[in-house]
Amino acid sequence: MVRVKICGVTTPDDARRAADAGADAVGLNFYPRSPRHVTPSQAAAVVRALPPFTAPVGVFVGTPVRQVCAVAFQLGLRAVQTYDDQPPDEDPFPFAHVPAFRVKDAAGLDHVRRFVAAATAAGRPPAAVLIDSHVEGQLGGTGRVAPWHLLDGFDPGAPIILAGGLTPENVAAAVAAVRPWGVDVASGVESAPGRKDPDRVARFVAAARAGESC
């Protein structure tokens, strides 16, 4: 079954509604330049609102591994998502590590393969890789669709989480085309940056699962 992460959650109510809709995980964005940024204290209230089987995931950009793990430990996060060009120089375990990549062409996929190979050789294989769209100067939440056509049959050596421009209207087609392990959405289910629309969240989760049968 395809897993669903609702990213950029900023309030306890949105977290509860995402879980009630069937989301497997919610993303907490610690990147200060993001319109969905939360502080650790704000994130704590969101994590407290989650039921026990919905995983909180931290999103970090350019943050040292030790600091990432300190925040993850403080909040009880299950996984950490990072935007880094090179594998971490320290082991993020016991937190599942999901490196994210902005891909626009085949060269971007080669970089993903090299990253996974290097991390695996160092004994720190990623739990999954997130493939996002490439928009110059922006990291995630752009609403721009990732290059699905490049991902047909792509095997980087780790499970694929597809992001980038996904919506309730196109996620079933994306799942049918790419067959990812999971999907990740932020702007596609919002009424405003950082504010999730409950109806769009519920329709997104249902459509993502329906895409598996296409």
What's this model, at a glance?
The protein contains six helices and ten strands. The chain has 214 residues and is of the alpha/beta class. The chain has one domain (3-213): Alpha-Beta Barrel (TIM Barrel).
Q: Helix and strand layout, with pairings?
A:
Elements: E1 3-6, H1 12-20, E2 25-29, H2 40-49, E3 55-61, H3 65-75, E4 79-83, E5 96-103, H4 106-121, E6 129-133, E7 160-162, H5 171-178, E8 182-185, E9 190-192, E10 195-196, H6 198-210
Parallel strand pairs: 1-2, 1-8, 2-3, 3-4, 4-5, 5-6, 6-7, 7-8
Antiparallel strand pairs: 9-10
Helix pairs in contact: 1-2, 5-6
Polypeptide structure, described:
The chain has 214 residues and is α/β, with parallel strands linked by helices. It has one domain (3-213): Aldolase class I (TIM Barrel, Alpha-Beta Barrel). It has helices at residues 12-20, 40-49, 65-75, 106-121, 171-178, 198-210; strands at 3-6, 25-29, 55-61, 79-83, 96-103, 129-133, 160-162, 182-185, 190-192, 195-196. An eight-stranded parallel beta barrel has the order 1-2-3-4-5-6-7-8, surrounded by six helices. Strands 9-10 form a two-stranded antiparallel ribbon. The longest helix is centred in the middle third of the chain and has 16 residues, at 106-121. The model has no long low-confidence stretch (mean pLDDT 93).
Unreliable runs, pLDDT <50, ≥5 residues? none
Identify the strand order in the major beta sheet: 1-2-3-4-5-6-7-8
Tally of individual helices: 6
Rg, Cα atoms, Å: 16 Å
Q: N- to C-terminal separation?
A: 13 Å
Percent strand equals: 15-25%
> What does the main sheet amount to?
8 strands, parallel, barrel
- Helix-strand pattern: EHEHEHEEHEEHEEEH
SSE class: alpha/beta
- Assign an overall shape: globular
Per CATH, the class reads Alpha Beta
CATH architecture classification name = Alpha-Beta Barrel
Fraction of residues in H or I helices? 25-40%
CATH superfamily: Aldolase class I
The overall pLDDT, averaged over residues, is 93
CATH topology: TIM Barrel
Write down how many β-strands occur, each being a DSSP E stretch of 2 or more residues. 10
